[in-house]
Amino acid sequence: MLTRKQYELLMFIDERLRATGISPSFDEMKDALDLKSKSGIHRLITGLEERGFIRRLAHRARALEVVKLPENLGDQPLPAAPAKFSPKVITGNFTLVGAAPVAGIADAVSLPLYGKIAAGTPIEALRDNSASVEIPAALIGGGSHYALTIEGDSMIEAGILDGDTVVIRECSSADNGTIVVALVDDQEATLKRLRRKGASIALEPANKAYETKIFPENRVKIQGRLVGLLRNY
């Protein structure tokens, strides 16, 4: 039986691994559980490891593997490459990574390609309705969507590379930790992870070479959240 905090930490680690493939840092875990120090995270991780829910991977920094989930979620070993929360990545031949090949072009939809968005330094928002991109219909759900081309390397630790095309679902709000398109001062768009801190919004990169930028809430508008990614090889 897990404690409430052990359960919360396990689910946070599992969700982050499924979304990005990278274990969250101890600081991220501390913030997610609203703890005052990282020593509490160390104790929780040790407890989860002793109970067989997680495993530390040797010779790799920040490397944790979720072995199983609690009984109320099916106390069974997890599949090697779960798809539910994994980023949906499509290769150049329209094969969905980690899934069966997508059907023919009849199952594709056309999305407006609004130009380049910087994953490193914010650039002026660009909405070019003359361009479009074809993607498999299975990649998106309900709601309005659009595509953007990534320029820069600040999200590489989330598996988002320079030249990738990201699929965005339009929305005006998002949960903490979600990768979003943020419009700063109504003129600069950037793809970053959203962190709310009181009356401020932090736009967090996924590359240690870049700094998190913090803005007052009234300077940032959420334009959508990441739901998929296309990549040519």
Task: Walk me through what this model shows.
The chain has 233 residues and is an alpha+beta fold. 16% of the residues lie in helices and 32% in strands. It is built from three helices and 13 strands. Strands 3, 4, 5, 6, 7, 8, 9, 10, 11, 12 and 13 form an eleven-stranded mixed beta sheet that branches. A two-stranded antiparallel sheet has the order 1-2. Strand 1 (54-56) and strand 2 (64-66) form a beta hairpin. The longest helix is centred in the first third of the chain and has 17 residues, at 4-20.
Outline the secondary-structure elements.
Elements: H1 4-20, H2 26-32, H3 38-50, E1 54-56, E2 64-66, E3 89-90, E4 108-118, E5 123-124, E6 132-136, E7 145-151, E8 165-169, E9 179-184, E10 188-197, E11 200-204, E12 213-216, E13 220-230
Parallel strand pairs: 3-13, 4-7
Antiparallel strand pairs: 1-2, 4-6, 5-10, 7-8, 8-13, 9-10, 9-13, 10-11, 11-12
Could you tell me the strand content as a percent range? Answer: 25-35%
Give the strand tally: 13
Q: What characteristic shape results from the CA principal axes?
A: globular
The topology string of helices and strands comes to HHHEEEEEEEEEEEEE
Output the number of helix runs.
3
- Mean pLDDT across every amino acid position: 77
Uncertain residue ranges: 73-88, 90-106
How far apart, in Å, are the first and last alpha carbons?
46 Å
Structural class determined from secondary elements: alpha+beta
Helix amount: 10-25%
- The radius of gyration over CA amounts to 19 Å
Main sheet: strands, sense, barrel: 11 strands, mixed
